[in-house]
Amino acid sequence: QVQLVESGGGLVQPGGSLRLSCAASGFAFSSYAMSWYRRAPGKEREWVAFISATGGTTSYADSVKGRFTISRDNAKNTVYLQMNSLKPDDTAVYYCMWASLQSYWGQGTQVTVSS
9 or 102: which carries more pLDDT confidence? Predict the structure, then answer.
C-alpha cells in the first residue's frame, strides 16, 4: 500500500534552517510529481511547493519563495524540503502529498519556529 513518511521537523530559532524528508513507497515514485503542504494552528491547509516527476520543474507558494527549496532523489524514493531563513509564521505541521486517482498524505512532521 502507499506510504508517505515525513521526518526532519523540530524546534528551530527564527532565521534557522531545517530539511524535511518524505520517504515514499507503494507506487512508482519516479513517475509522479510530489508536493509539500502545511497546516498552521487554526488555519487551513496551505500548499507550499511542487516538484515534477523528473525534478525539472518546481514551483512555490509566494510565502516561501526564495527561502524553501524542494528536491527529490528518485533512487531513494524520497522528496525533500530545504527550509532556510525560517520565520515564526512557518510554524506548522508539514505534509508531503502524492495525487493519483486520489490524494495520499503522510502523517506530517511538526516544525516550530520560535526563540
Answer: 9
Beta bridge partners of residue 62, listed in sequence order = none
Q: Can you tell me whether residue 27 is helix, strand or coil?
A: coil
E strands, the chain, are: 3-7, 10-12, 18-25, 34-39, 45-51, 58-60, 68-73, 78-83, 92-99, 103-105, 109-113
Single-letter amino acid, residue 25:
S
Strands 92-99 and 78-83: unpaired
Convert the pLDDT of each residue in 58-93 to its tens digit: 999 999 999 999 999 999 999 999 999 999 999 999
Per-residue pLDDT at 48: 98
Which of 12, 17, 54, 52 has its CA nearest to residue 35? Answer: 52
pLDDT higher than 90, residue 56: yes
